[in-house]
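In practice, a research group might receive sequence data for several interacting partners and want a quick structural hypothesis before committing to experiments. The following worked case mirrors that situation: the sequences arrive first, and a predicted assembly follows.
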Amino acid sequence: MTFSLTLSVSDLLLLLPELFLTAWLCVVLIVDFSFKRIVQEQLAYLSILGLVITLACLAWFDMTGITGTLFGKMFVLDRMAIFFKVMILLATILVILLSIDYVHRFSFFRGEYYFLVVMSALGMMFMTSANDLLSLFVTLEFATFGFYVLVSYLRDDMASNEAGLKFFILGVFAAGLLAYGISLVYGETGKLVFSEMIGAAPTTGLVIGFLLIFAALGFKIGAVPFHSWIPDTYHGAPTPVTAFLSIAPKVAAFAILLRLFLVALATFKPAWALLIVATSILSMTYGNIVAIAQRNVKRLLAYSGIAQVGNVLIGLAAGTKMGTDSILFYLLTYLFANLGAFAVIMAISNAVGSDEIEDYSGLNRRSPFLAFAMLIFLLSLAGVPPLAGFIGKLYIFVAAIKEGLYILITVGLVNIVVSMYYYLIVVKKMYINEPLDSSPIKTTGPLRAVIYVGLAGTLVIGIYPQPFLDWAVAATLMFSNLLGPAASIPVSVAPFGG
Amino acid sequence: MVEYTLLIILFAPFVGALALIFVSNRQLSLVRGIAAGSAFVSLIASVYLFYAYDPLKGGYQFIQRIEWSRQLGISLHLGVDGIGTPLVLASSILLFAGIFVSWHIKDRVKEFYIWLLILAAATIGVFMSLDLFFLYFFYEMSVIPMYLLLGMWGSHTKKYLEMTDAEGLKQRDSVGFIFNFGANSKEYAAMKLVLFLSAFAVAALMGILLIYKFSGLNTFDILVLREQAHFSGPLATLIWLLIFFGFASIAPIWPLHSWSPVGHAAAPAATSMLHAGVLMKLGHFSIIRVAFEILPETTRELMPIAAVLCIFSIIYGGLVAYYAKDTKYVIGYSSSSHMGYVFLGMAALDYISLSGAVIYMFAHAMATGMLFAMAGWVYDQTHTRDIPSLGGLSNRMPFISAAFVIGCMASIGMPGTVNFIAEVMIIVGSWNKYPFQVVVAVLGIVLTMAYLFKMMRGLFYGSMAEKYSHSHDAVTVVDRMPLLIMITVSISFGIFPGHLYSVVRSGVDPLIARITKVVPVAEHPMNLPHATSPTVPTSASREALAKVTPR
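A structural hypothesis for the assembly, expressed as tokens:
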């Protein structure tokens, strides 16, 4: 295969957000070590400025409809990529706001922290545009690279080091699986670009190759049985990094999963749907049941995140245009609720110094605002109306029931009730129990800002979701050919994932 | 303005709750003022609604339709028929009364009123939803405020508090989740309520999703589904069972009732009032709105299930109420027993009995609201709900004890209260189809008398313990008003039921006609509109019914 390396200005335009962010990264790094007197907060706001400009650029793309492919289809900028990029940038901005107070806990390299966060964001932005196996590998590793460092940023904290090590070893293992899977798929088909693989003969090598790729991506999204790194890593990592980890890599990996399953493997849907259904059921059930036993709120959110991923996978199992819309929409609602919840966790851990659920006792008396915000975020995660999470769950269920996934929906509905229990345990601590220490809790400006954004997102999307639904629907127009079950190939000749 | 009546009723409490967020907890009178004000707006609008609803025209009126999601086929479609109208009125009466009943709450007043307003608004939302999505939306929305109201302002049972030794404390922490025999903490009660209701709510949601899928219409609109969706065979049975049991859990029908008395007992007075008064009716109402409207044929086939279960509801609830020693347990179990009558009235699928069931829902809201308000008053004064340790309170609280007698009379169904009319209609209407159940229901009335009189004697007569000599009567306007409102409503509709009856009939007639396939009387050219003779069921309707319904 040949690569055309001639780039015109209009080609570069497609890369503008990434190019700009790369340049901005360098600026942040240079500013950090050129001015000795620079306060780290200024670096944070500098990074946010860059991210906001990038966001504005993407908004312009979205409105003018600029799309296209680059580098022999390695890189694609379509409206779905823009949607995912916007989510990643939004998450990054909120995470940087979360970090501003936290960075004081790091003994060294406070400036580089923002560099690493934005670099990971850049990697994930590339990930959402990856359109062939090579760029999939490169971007995925690029995005994970920053996280390896970020997770173990608390150098004096054993838990953080352990988290980093665990994440690194399992991450590298997943990368190995991914590389092996890619080599198998390339060997069998001779194709790298997703869209060119359609209709490849389902040989054993190809099946194994795709299973390996799925395993590597399953590691990224933290679906059972590839979840084992999640609890310890979430627990040990610095809380803003946990918050980042809990949303952005999942979002980016779902972009790839959608392209992989709905473009490259579109014809084998009856076969891989079973795989996704099984993963989804396992993730939801395992995540929710184990979350009940948690005493640390970060671990609780880690397991709840596993369960949420199971929910998102329902949309993928549906494998239709509507399923895709519902995934995009669900991730958006999850972003606001989850980052908001982490903001509350950080506000409390700043005051109390720990993340145990026990420390949330009587939060309502200590800080009614924080307790109310946490209540809203947890209930949104649980899927209670009129919050965004409810609409997200319902949308996914509607998409799935149109495809007749009754068992999956039943499991999902039962899991809503199970999850209600552990979210309400936290609510009980906050509202019903009396505080052990009744001193009021103060929140700082940046944390408050994140909480307000989270509340606004959760409530507005929950009460008036139409514009967001429209946005998600417009973003996945490329999948509108996916009407109904892809029954063109009988299951018997397509042993994929079976 | 008039066409926005439903929006005003629904959103006034929400706006009140929103306004309360920005008020400081220290400005107590402002907090109460906002809560009472928003409830009052809602009340006035629903009184207007009740009298402006035109029973001659019938059908759904005051319709509002706001597109909400094109992709999912959801719109905020509001409208009331003759069944929803009285229930909306009952909800807003109880909300308004509940605000005054909880006037003396000390702890986190602002939050209390916020959650109470949201709870009431959500229940009102169910009664006017014409869209399956919003029906479920409001239904589920009413559950979480219950959790907080019970947990934050509720109370433990006596038996739970008695467990103070080491062994008991251990038991207290590890109370078995389903059976813990009366030793309930408020946290337990709240969690049980939420999980129980959510578990069955998702069953109903599954039913709703199946309706959505198999109607193939891409809409959640009840009016569209009612006209165009047809279900038959095992699928219809499955959907019907999911819908019926999903919603019947909140009603609560017999094997699914156990969360309810526990929840009543733990809840603060105003919450119990709303819980027993209107929240439980969400179940019956949603069954009528979803199962009766969309699956009429299946309803005709399967409604005997309710007729069987209601026997157990009536007898079991009544017996437990007789032996219970906790005031709120007695009223709680009496409520679940009385909800059996509503199921009986629904199961008979007759014009009279279903109208009776709907009127009974309204009547029961008033009667049980009174009883819970007074049980709450007694608890506030004496800090106990234990009937054996109380007694002779009528000396200290003559007004309360007089009102309690009226409440008991209403609950039993004395002539002169609206409950009487409802009970008679249920009994007369279901006699043809379910004579055995009618006998049980009459026995249930006797049982009701037994336990209510027993409780009345235990609380207000006999000798009074010295420690209760400081308890007060309700003397101020604020304390007496909620009781007086409910008593007035109960008695005035008992004496002048005409408008209530014709409103309810206008909602019931088309429904029963669809289910039993009898031409509704009102549409029959030979008959005058039934509204001209409101109190007496037209003989033609009974004849028409007798021709078709198998005896």
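Before designing any experiment, note the following. The two ends of chain B are 49 Å apart (CA to CA). The CA atoms of residues 143 and 441 of chain B lie 30 Å apart.
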